[in-house]
Design brief:
The protein is of the alpha/beta class. The chain contains 5 helices and 5 strands. The strands form 2 sheets. It has a 3-stranded parallel sheet. A two-stranded antiparallel ribbon has the order 4-5. Helix 1 links the parallel strand 1 and strand 2. The longest helix has 15 residues, at 72-86. The chain is globular and about 50 Å long. It starts with a strand and ends with a strand.
């Protein structure tokens, strides 16, 4: 492994450690989507107050100073920054990234060169699963997704 990166959240850093990535560099651009006023709520709880709500279409509402909220384009800009740092390293070998579910979906869509809204087409990665992004014939691909 050439490099290991992780969201700086405690649970992500612990996941990296359990995966044997004891030297993972914390990267704030890998933090999960800031859900703003929806922070701490489940999708079902949000839909009780806002029937038909869809994160990918409707986004989040502003929150407090600790969780002001992010638009999908802001999350995509963070994942693009991560990919810009990782791509040069891939010439030397593999890079591991430990991230959260929604952010991982956006990162994957951007890896594939897709609009961030295409993230909705990817199943939500379960905690502790492995996904592998790669290239085939010079084109970005998903070679594994959500593998236990």
């Amino acid at each position: 492994m050439v490099a290991d990166f992780s969201s700086p959240s405690g649970r992500a850093m612990r996941t990296a450690e359990l995966a044997g990535l004891t030297g993972a560099d914390p990267d704030p651009d890998l933090l999960e989507w800031d859900y703003g006023g929806y922070e701490g709520l489940t999708a079902e709880q949000i839909r009780e107050a806002r029937p038909g709500w869809d994160l990918w279409r409707d986004g989040v509402i502003p929150g407090d100073a600790d969780h002001p909220g992010e638009e999908l384009a802001q999350v995509a800009a963070r994942t693009d920054a991560v990919l810009d740092r990782i791509r040069p390293l891939l010439r030397e070998g593999d890079v591991a990234v430990v991230a959260h579910g929604h952010l991982a979906r956006v990162l994957t869509a951007r890896w594939l060169g897709l609009d961030p809204s295409a993230s909705r087409l990817l199943g939500h990665p379960h905690p502790g699963t492995l996904s592998v992004l790669a290239t085939e014939d010079g084109h970005p691909v998903i070679s594994a997704w959500n593998v236990p």
